[in-house]
Amino acid sequence: MKIQSMSGLQHWGDSRFSSLPDTFCNKLKEVCKFSFDYAKHCFGFEKKKILNSEDFQKPQRLMFQNEMKSACHLEFISGFHTVFTPYTSPFTKRKAAFTLAEVLITLGIIGIIAAMTLPALIQTNRNKEVEAKLQKIYSTMNQAILLSEIDNGPREQWGTSLSAEEFFKKYFLPYINNLSITSFNSYGGGNLAVYFSDGTALVTKQSGGYDYFFFPNAKNLNENSFAITNENTGDIEREGCGITYFAFLFTPGMKVETVKYNTKGFEPNKYSLEPVTVEAITTSNAQYACKKGAANKAWCAALIQLNGWKIPEDYPFKVR
């Protein structure tokens, strides 16, 4: 077999290139337009090496074929059949790409990592939101006390015989910005819910305005099931305390030891807490302690306050 010369290319010997089929040679002529220039530019062979057949031994011939395959993008399918599209060039190398299986595996791995880390990120964001709102209500209520004293005298002399609603409306309501207030009768009756424009809510219970329960998310306040009484023990159980809402006390006129930490202002509930330490808050009382299994969990806000208004890393509940 001979390949006819183009632009003066000499005939190649039959014995030298007998392994090259006619289809290959035809495609070479048709697609690569073989010439001296293409031999140098496309295949990297100098003209003298093509002309000098003695240099074309088998290893060189095979390398020549491989160079032609790579440079011209020849796909040897069904007898060296070449497939070209309008977007390909015989002198343009194809770019590597991911297979569908590799893409699906990668997406699966990303999904697994996201499923593992996303809940923790969401909870971290919730913690920060609760921390900020706890500090805000603490500041808002204590500022209101200072303003109210200007009009109503020292807090120790405020009328403790008033109902929760009457007490709040007289001593607090004029000095805070709220959205609305409602009264409801669950948990013994006499409850007042104050809704704020930032989406939080504050519930006050008992005459004299002693007990307060703060909801960082007002949507978690269900006025029909705010708290329940255990039929066996008679204790008030607050399932959501320390989780969806937090207990505060304000007892300015009381002179008893059990509320000594709550006489100065609006403070996290520390009823009967002694001393105010992490260990005492989390272990010492089965009813008020901030731990799983406690019926009331009233000291959880005190635990967060003790930690600089930051929810501890080992906090026993997931706030929401």
Automatic annotation (TrEMBL):
<dbReference type="Pfam" id="PF20318">
    <property type="entry name" value="DUF6613"/>
</dbReference>
<keyword id="KW-1133">Transmembrane helix</keyword>
<feature type="transmembrane region" description="Helical">
    <location>
        <begin position="103"/>
        <end position="122"/>
    </location>
</feature>
<protein>
    <submittedName>
        <fullName>Prepilin-type N-terminal cleavage/methylation domain-containing protein</fullName>
    </submittedName>
</protein>
<dbReference type="InterPro" id="IPR012902">
    <property type="entry name" value="N_methyl_site"/>
</dbReference>
<feature type="domain" description="DUF6613">
    <location>
        <begin position="120"/>
        <end position="319"/>
    </location>
</feature>
<keyword id="KW-0472">Membrane</keyword>
<dbReference type="InterPro" id="IPR045584">
    <property type="entry name" value="Pilin-like"/>
</dbReference>
<keyword id="KW-0812">Transmembrane</keyword>
<dbReference type="InterPro" id="IPR046721">
    <property type="entry name" value="DUF6613"/>
</dbReference>
<dbReference type="Pfam" id="PF07963">
    <property type="entry name" value="N_methyl"/>
</dbReference>
